[in-house]
Write a structure and sequence with these properties.
It is a single chain. The mean pLDDT is 94. The two termini are 37 Å apart. The chain is elongated. The chain has 7 helices and 2 strands, in the order αααααββαα. The chain is mainly alpha-helical. Strands 1-2 form a two-stranded antiparallel ribbon.
């Protein structure tokens, strides 16, 4: 009798698991797109207001060869446009292009400002270094979203 009860409980939880997994598959891309959009929009908007973005000094010191008072508003607009594109789901190919053109610049401090991003090279990161390395997740999210702009779907191997 015990094994029958266990089978019923196992089937019940398996059905719940299937429903949750299906919901994630149906909604995950949209949630990923909007969440990534909010991050870009928020970080972009902060850069429009001097002293409000925690990344402002990092940008100023990294892109020292361009007047930061001109560059930071351009970067702010760039990131805000990425955010709007992702949140709305409009012009996704262009939005993903903007995202991937922006990403190498976010990694520049790793090379240009090693004393600011490393406590111990190559594994000890400062808070600024962690802020930069987290962009690997943004790149991964961009790849997933980019894979859907022509109708790609989630598949498992």
């Amino acid at each position: 009798m015990k094994s029958t009860e266990d089978e019923i409980v196992n089937r019940y939880f398996e059905n719940i698991d299937i429903k949750i997994s299906n919901w994630m598959a149906m909604n995950g891309i949209t949630i990923l797109r909007i969440g990534l959009g909010v991050v870009f929009f928020w970080f972009g908007i902060l850069k429009f207001f001097p002293g409000l973005s925690p990344a402002e000094n990092l940008v100023r010191n990294t892109v020292y060869f361009i007047n930061p008072d001109l560059f930071i508003p351009v970067l702010a607009l760039w990131e805000t446009l990425i955010g709007i594109g992702l949140i709305t789901g409009k012009f996704m190919r262009f939005t993903i292009l903007l995202l991937f053109l922006q990403m190498p610049g976010t990694a520049m401090p790793l090379l240009v400002l090693p004393d600011v991003v490393w406590t111990v090279f190559p594994y000890g990161l400062t808070l600024e270094g962690q802020y930069i390395v987290k962009n690997l997740v943004l790149i991964g999210a961009g790849l997933v979203l980019g894979g859907t702009v022509r109708g790609g779907k989630i598949t498992t191997v």
